[in-house]
What we know:
Layout: no helix or strand
Amino acid sequence: MYHPLPVSYSGTGIGLxx
Length: 18
């Protein structure tokens, strides 16, 4: 999944790179 939202970069699903 790819989310253009720089919130989490760990692996929560709501980050830039999960």
